[in-house]
Amino acid sequence: MVASYELSEGDAESYILSNLDDFQEELIQIHIKTVQDSSAQSKQLDQYLDYLLEDVDVMTLEEFL
Q1: What percent of the chain has pLDDT over 70?
Q2: What angle do CA 37, 40, 41 make, to 5 degrees?
Q3: What is the pLDDT of residue 47?
Q4: How far apart are CA 7 and CA 5, in angstroms?
Q5: DSSP characters for 11-39?
Q6: How far apart are alpha carbons 50 and 33 in whole angstroms?
Q7: pTM (two decimals)
Q8: What gap in Å lies between CA 24 and CA 15, rounded to an integer?
Q9: 7: pLDDT confidence band, cut at 50, 70 and 90?
């Protein structure tokens, strides 16, 4: 059974303010993880593009025509 509590606006505000450091720390950790994940994905994409371009012969437009 899930307990539910009703907070008045003042209670909610005081709860948030009293736990602000925890909320900020959690947001910072989420941001760091997002940046790390994005960086890892970017690195994987770079490696994949390098792999795709390994065997590509570059030719000039004149050679093509």
Answers
A1: 89
A2: 85
A3: 92
A4: 6
A5: HHHHHHHHTHHHHHHHHHHHHHHHHHHHH
A6: 26
A7: 0.47
A8: 14
A9: low
